[in-house]
Design a protein that fits this description.
By secondary structure, the chain is of the alpha/beta class. It has 2 domains: about 5-165, Rossmann fold, CATH 3.40.50; about 175-275, no CATH class. The protein is built from 13 helices and 7 strands. The protein has helices at about 20, 30-35, 65-80, 85-90, 105-110, 155-165, 225-230, 240-245, 250-265, 270-275, 280, 290-295, 300-310, and strands spanning about 5-10, 35-40, 55-60, 65, 80-85, 130-135, 145. The strands form 2 sheets. The protein has a 5-stranded parallel beta sheet, sandwiched between helices. Strands 4-6 form a two-stranded antiparallel sheet. α2 (about 30-35) runs parallel beside α6 and α9 (about 250-265) crosses α10. Bound molecules: iron/sulfur cluster (3 copies).
Amino acid sequence: MTTTKVSVNVEWLSACGGCDTSLVDLHEKILQLFDAVQIQHWPLITDIKERPKAKIGLISGAVRSQHDHKVAVEMRERCDAIVAFGTCAVYGGISAASLAHSNAEILDRVYVHNPTTVGGAAPKNTVAVLEDKVLPLDEVIPVDLYLPGCPPHANFTFEALAAVIAGRVPKARDESVCGRCKRTMKKTEVAAIDSGYAHPMDPSLCFLSQGQICLGSVTLDRCLSPCTEVGAACTGCAGPTMQILTEPNRDLRTEVAERMSLLTKIPAAKVVETMEAGAKSHYAYAMATKMVGSKPTFLIKKWIEKIEATT
Ligand code: SF4
Ligand code: SF4
Ligand code: SF4
């Protein structure tokens, strides 16, 4: 780290707060970071409203509201380098499930026709006005560094921040989650898709071999693969691998279907159909990006076209 302190502004847009909070996972390394930086603005820990000029702007969250849009533009004006921090900022994240619904439908469901609300009404002036659709940060402002992960593991966050502070390119491999997973892929006689919820799964065998959809092979490792180790299939929260992002014909569902059909007796078409039907979950984290939205994933394309036709 450098001896001259580097000024940093931290902001969150439409975010759950997990990315900001994950900085605590740096543990004692956070002291090295605080030695090297001067935090000037960070809504999570300070009440400083102004955003002074800064060398680095760290932004988590997607652009969902007009307020998010304004804050993103102001951060770009004030900061020399912008880091899109976390899957929501990089790809739009889980808020992109809203692509399946109009803003009117969402407000009605949240504030009016909701099992826990009686006589509700959509707020008029008290919440931020929604944009037409969720946008990743780089569709609103230029981004200098992308750090996906929901949230990114502290190892990747520290390396990325240390690199930006030192003015060098971060070291990060583009392995998939499978690269670190300890489960073994093995050909089985499994003939049906299994949700994995009704009975225990073999902890040493790849989920795909057991008929459960796992997105590890199509997901970039920015997490050190914790989920498969504790018995949960990967849902793809760090976003797609570089191959999926850069090769137009590669898509999450076709890649997973091909692999799963080779490992089991489940036809690839059945896997594609299942992932398509559950697109809101299987594409939950990156469907707002043009790269993923323009893949041959019919439902997502249909949703986006519907929104664009009505706005
Ligand atoms: S990327 Fe994940 S942890 Fe970060 S703000 Fe979005 S939902 Fe929360
Ligand atoms: S598909 Fe999932 S369970 Fe199988 S090796 Fe990859 S990460 Fe592990
Ligand atoms: S869901 Fe997948 S990408 Fe997300 S933390 Fe778990 S293993 Fe990593």
